[in-house]
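Hey, resending since the last one bounced:
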Amino acid sequence: MGDLAGQAVDGTLYYLDYSQFERIRRTELPATQRVALLADMCRLNTLYMIARAGSGHIGSSFSSMEIFSWLLLEELDIADNVKAAGDLFFSSKGHDAPGYYSVLMALGKLPFELIHKLRRIDGLPGHPDVGTPGMITNTGSLGMGISKAKGMVQANRLLKQEGRVMVLTGDGELQEGQFWESLASAVNHGLHEITAIIDHNKLQSDTFVKNVSDLGDLEAKLNAFGWRVARCDGNDVGALAATLAGIRDDARPKVIIADTVKGKGVSFMEHTSLDSDVAMYRFHSGAPDGPSYRRAAQELMDRLKLRVAELGLEPLEFEAIEREPTAPPPDTAQRLIPAYSRALLEQAAKHPNLVALDADLVLDTGLIPFRDQYPERFFECGIAEQDMVSMAGGMALKGLLPIVHSFACFLSARPNEQIYNNATEHTKIIYVGSLAGVVPGGPGHSHQAVRDISALAAIPDLTIVEPSCEAEVGPLLDWCINEAPGSCYIRLVSLPWETPYVLPASYRLEVGCGVALTPGEQVVVFGYGPVLLSQAVLAAQTLAMEGLAVKVISFPWLNRVDPTWLTGIVNGAKRIVCLDNQYLPAGVGSMLRAALAGVVNEDVELAMVGLTGVPPSGSNPQVLAEVGLDAAALVPIFSFGLVDE
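The structure tokens again:
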């Protein structure tokens, strides 16, 4: 799941254009040799896409490359679209989208020029989306694949349409309860049209699957559900082809355990080169650094040259593009996750009953320092948020203080019922949702946490907060642990973010109250978190040069407001703007609008700005502009009717 955007690789990047794939596809090589060669060619292009985008998932794209290549190039008669008759295929993993895209491009089923636009708003989203040619379902949140395949088969039967449905899953994904829920009824209903392939590369986001939630005798477990189970080397095209042929006519739903190597095809990225107890696999997510890219690309190109020569084919022609240097985030950028790591250690030293739980995102949630210093108080729960949250509930009932961590998009939604159940027991649990809000935009809507406030705001006695900068992280965590009467949800922006403001030296936390970052009276703007507030302050600075003073309020309390403070802070305003880094319904703006209804006169204009539709995948500036939350979009909203055109 980890998906923090990295920096694009500078220097020369290499790829193979469509003509090279056309030429190899036309050869009269045996199918298994042809596909194996094409798969390695796609690896180079996948590496190019991720390096150019600055983020993506190399490990799982590489481990599944032979599977994608054989299925799409030889095995399946793919339907023109999901509603048509014919075979259907999709990946439930989602992380392997770059590899999936590269094979579709090799087939000519995806415009080849999109190779240059991974994770760009006019290109390819970070995870599969039905708006992309060849994608028949959205994926990214794990565990849904077989359930969706069952729905497609049942629809085919009702519509009298023929065709197989194949779905690729990850092995870490098998920690999700929905996977196991989906198995039994497929057998009950005789859904023999389904073939699931498990990309069994042995690693999940952070570390080896066996170190988190060992799958044990996977064949025996799957057999116990009544599925036809087969196993093969998933990186051996011939073995995969023979296995598929051997189970094709079985009258049961079928599953292949495809043993693969994460990072397959680049020696130093392959997990088999690592110690089995390694704490962190480097190439799960993010772009490789410059030296790693050059080393990997050279290894792939050298092997491709040798293989083509051995097969007696004309040499491949590699394309090269020079990347312009990209600047890293400035040292002055706010880094909330490291600030949270430090604050958590401070609190842990004071509270021996404090424990931390993680959902396979130990790097992204800042828990490595805690895990290293307090290993007996750290619990890795894997890709299973519902299980993790209920474990925390049991710990809280026994008197521990659990702090629960995951990405905000998963933590707020997948275990929402479990969070509510914990709340009904009147215990204290702190939930920390990282990767909050609409950026980073690269991963796409499955990872953009833009409904977490709405999902959690009504939980009884749960206070939601979001720090505006590093300096506010520690005090907010301290309040949640030592002063909050009930449970809390801390929303954290994960990206390093430059903020054109500092909190006043005199500022102290008061529940339901905020603080002005810029002076002004006519226009009052409420925002929270570094992304919203930075854009609001930049817009206010622009308007200040035009003679309009805009008061930007940093408001860290996302479901609490002090009516007395609110009355005073908006006194004299002609226009009030409420910003939301999430969907507008039931967001912070909705709460403030309700509170303002009895405070301001009818002639005061109130504007609410936030998301109204599914956000796109793209670079951070592209996404903020598209959803109307960048400074350029905010200037006319803040000044409407108050500045001459």
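The CA atoms of residues 64 and 451 lie 32 Å apart.

Sorry for the duplicate.
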